[in-house]
Specification:
The complex is a heterodimer of chains A (about 300) and B (about 300). Chain A is an alpha+beta fold. In chain A, strand 1, helix 1 and strand 2 form a beta-alpha-beta unit. Chain A is about 15% helix and about 30% strand. Chain A has 6 helices and 16 strands. Chain A has 2 domains: about 200 residues, TIM Barrel (Alpha-Beta Barrel); about 70 residues. Chain B has about 300 residues and is α+β, with helices and mostly antiparallel strands. Chain B folds into 2 domains: about 210 residues, Metal-dependent hydrolases (TIM Barrel); about 80 residues, Immunoglobulin-like. Chain B contains 7 helices and 17 strands. In chain B, strands 1, 2, 3, 4, 5, 6, 7, 8, 9, 12, 13, 15, 16 and 17 form a 14-stranded mixed sheet that branches. A 3-stranded antiparallel sheet of chain B has the order 10-11-14, with no helix packed on it. Chain B starts with 10 loop residues before the first strand and ends with a strand. The chains are: A alpha+beta (about 300), B alpha+beta (about 300). At the A-B interface, helix 4, helix 5, strand 12 and strand 13 of A face helix 4, helix 5, strand 12, strand 13 and helix 7 of B.
Chain lengths: ~300, ~300
């Protein structure tokens, strides 16, 4: 059975923004305005992640939307001379003591001890190397950061995910917009979470369990292990891909087209069953927008 | 090296520098492969079979320039995969040599070819450390069609930008690496600027970096005008100045997103974003297809 298949979990799909900035750091909108913007855009939850400080969720009125506290923390030194940007999701009211003097590993531990999930922000924008990615025990990383993509074209970090998978790491993947609202940088990337309830605790639990996927557009409808293979159902997409970390390994629907290029879309594909090795599913639509499932590994009896 | 095809005189020629035939693991014979590309209007082609030279002298070129080429293997990356080296301008049939390290493989390749590119870094699971562990290659493949349509791992921009950030100012090419087992033809090529279409002119333009790589979009001009880089192109959704430094760069999305997003054929990007260093331009069309210039200096 698949270890982290969200479609085997109970609950409902909630759309969330996990990395946003407000006037409490370098955002252009107040926390309330940010919350209102996402609610009007149809999101179910938002995590306020200002630089170096937590905006307590109870200081804003969600009006039905769930608001979580978080922060973006700069720490340590990467191989290319920048700092690691950590997105902590699920902080109640303030950053833990001792964070500014902590090493990278200590910072991650301190944040997690407060109940937060710790994601590496925008690995490509930060030009992170494999050594950087392995430097601490992160819960996951931003496979797509729309704000970084709009600003620098360095928003898609799939190669970074796959370097980690080749070293047997299985990071959770989130997509975010990293909105500051200096220009319309919101709603280009989001994370879908299968939560048992519309509460912060249930959302955090689902993120921790991997009952989520990242998207810049496409919707995943189902993932099902059948006799014929692994069935992926989605909104109409140009290609369905199973990424496996070994050199030259993997599968896409494109490779099933022998004599003509693909110029149509599909809503269902059957991938070969990936016994034993880690894999992840990715789709891309006709405009080039992608969605990414978490890395998974198929264990045990079918 | 000024890798700017827009600053020199000449004509534009379309070519694919990486193809396989029945001489290694391709499905079509060398002549049939040449015919496919000639019929599709390509100007030059490199048949780069594994471990051997498919000699253009034995073939009817159908009006194209055929660049003698081969794909040679050697060394081993930190995640286990050998390096595939695309050798262009082969001088003779390659010998079978033992090359346990990437540097040895590259040194041998350079002894038999005029230009050597590292093929499909992402497909090969190469890391930045792998690409820095040896020196002397002439560039990398930023896009490889068969690697994308085969397993979804055709793009290698992060590898390229890491090299540029470390001072290895190298060009990059887009290729098919067509085997024709599935439809891996026509997904990526380069547009080369050369005074005329013959082997010497093609090799000279390749060595000078006088080309851009593309999956479809056309880049017509890139020129510095009053502190701006003016890009003229086929209708594009986004024009980007990619700067190989953490957190730097600029794209037209910054000013267009949420406003007028109709396709543009001209864009101005601020030269100051490159802070006097190296930058490269990318153009993306409405289908997400990309074109990449080679790196240029901002000064």
């Amino acid at each position: 059975m698949l270890m982290t298949n969200p479609w085997l979990a109970s609950g409902e799909w909630l759309k969330g923004a996990l990395h946003v900035h407000t006037t409490n750091s370098d955002g252009k909108l107040s926390p309330q305005e940010v919350v209102d913007t996402y609610r009007q855009a149809g999101y179910d939850f938002v995590v306020l992640t200002d630089h170096g400080r937590v905006t307590p969720p109870d200081t804003v009125d969600g009006q039905g939307m769930v608001v979580l506290g978080g922060a973006e923390v700069g720490i340590g030194r990467t191989q290319h001379g920048g700092t690691y940007h950590l997105v902590a999701v699920g902080l109640k009211d303030q950053l833990p003591e001792g964070l500014s003097q902590a090493t990278l590993g200590e910072a991650v531990a301190l944040l997690r001890a407060q109940g937060a999930l710790v994601y590496l922000a925008h690995p490509y924008w930060s030009l992170l190397t494999l050594e950087d990615l392995l430097a601490a025990d992160f819960d996951g990383l931003e496979v797509f950061n729309a704000g970084c993509e709009y600003e620098t074209r360095h928003g898609d970090a799939v190669q970074h995910v796959d370097w980690m998978m080749a070293r047997d790491r299985m990071p959770r993947l989130i997509a975010v917009d990293d909105s500051h609202f200096g220009f319309w940088d919101a709603c280009g990337g989001w994370t879908m979470v299968k939560a048992a309830d519309r509460t912060p605790e249930a959302i955090l639990e689902a993120l921790r369990a991997g009952f989520s996927y990242a998207s810049a557009g496409p919707i995943f409808e189902d993932l099902e292990l059948c006799e014929d293979g692994l069935v992926v159902r989605s909104s109409p997409v140009r290609a369905v891909t199973m990424i496996r970390p070994g050199a030259g390994q993997g599968w896409t629907t494109d490779s099933t087209y022998t004599t003509r290029p693909r110029d149509t879309t599909t809503t269902e594909a059957v991938a070969p069953v990936p016994m034993g090795t880690p894999f992840r599913i990715e789709v891309i639509d006709a405009q080039g927008r992608k969605a990414w499932m978490n890395p998974m590994v198929l264990r045990g009896e079918q | 090296m000024n890798m700017n095809p827009f600053a020199v005189q000449g004509n534009w020629y379309r070519g694919n520098l990486h193809t396989h035939t029945t001489n290694s693991d391709g499905r079509y014979s060398p002549q049939s492969t040449v015919d496919v590309y000639a019929q599709a209007g390509y100007d030059f082609l490199a048949l780069a079979d594994h471990g051997r030279l498919t000699n253009p002298a034995d073939l009817d070129h159908r009006g194209m320039v055929l660049v003698p080429a081969a794909e040679l293997n050697g060394g081993r990356g930190e995640l286990g995969q050998s390096f595939h080296l695309l050798c262009l301008g082969m001088r003779r049939e390659p010998e079978r040599v033992e090359t346990p390290s990437a540097q040895e493989a590259l040194d041998y390749a350079r002894s038999v070819a005029e230009l050597v590119f590292v093929a499909h870094p992402y497909w090969s699971s190469h890391t930045p450390k792998d690409l820095m562990a040896f020196d002397g290659y002439d560039g990398i493949e930023v896009f490889n069609t068969t690697c994308q349509r085969g397993i979804g791992r055709g793009y290698s921009e992060p590898h390229w930008d890491d090299l540029l950030a470390r001072g290895r100012i190298l060009p990059a090419i887009a290729v098919d690496d067509a085997h024709f087992g599935y439809w891996d033809f026509g997904g990526g090529w380069i547009m080369l600027r050369a005074p005329q279409l013959d082997l010497d002119s093609v090799m000279a333009a390749l060595k000078a970096g006088h080309y851009y790589a593309t999956q479809g979009p056309e880049i017509k001009d890139v020129a510095v005008v009053d502190g701006w880089v003016k890009v003229v192109c086929s209708p594009a959704r986004t024009v980007a100045m990619v700067v190989p430094a953490p957190g730097r760069g600029w794209t037209t999305d910054r000013v267009r997103r949420g406003k007028d997003e109709s396709p543009m054929t001209e864009a101005y990007v601020p030269l100051s974003e490159a802070r006097g260093g190296v930058f490269r331009i990318e153009v993306i069309d409405e289908h997400g297809r990309r074109a990449w210039t080679n790196p240029m200096k901002a000064s």
